[in-house]
Amino acid sequence: MFALAVVLTLAWTVLGVVAVVALVHRGVTGHRVPAPARRRARPGYLRGFRPVLAYEQPRLTARYGAQHERYRTAVPAWLPRLHPWRQPADQKVSKQTIGIERVS
């Protein structure tokens, strides 16, 4: 069952790549991609990444806890950010907070 999910995810991801290529094509040539290709590509992109998010999000939250939740609220999943995410000053990561020690 897992292998089938992986194959389907890859297939839908390929359709998502088609959507990106269509956008680049229009930007470069000024011509629109035919409507049937656009209609198939958009849902394929979304169907391809929903299973990935459903698989990853609980595992990342279990592993990183509140830090991952803060990151998820600050960084949108589907839209690109126009500026980089900056962690609050009181939550900066240092060698001491993650437990790195020099071993001789």
How would you characterize the overall build of this protein?
The chain has 104 residues and is mainly α. The protein is built from four helices and no strands. The chain has one domain. The protein is elongated, with a radius of gyration of 19 Å. 3% of the residues are buried.
Structure, briefly:
The chain is mostly helical and 104 residues long.
Mean pLDDT: 69
Question: Which percent range describes the beta-strand content?
Answer: under 5%
Order of helices and strands: HHHH
- What value does the Rg take, in angstroms? 19 Å
Ends apart, CA distance between termini: 47 Å
Low-confidence stretches: none
Q: What coarse outline follows from CA principal-axis ratios?
A: elongated
| Domains, number | 1
- Helix segment tally: 4
Biggest sheet layout = none
Helix content: 55-70%
The structure class reads mainly alpha
E-strand count = 0
What are the key terms here?
mainly alpha; 104 residues
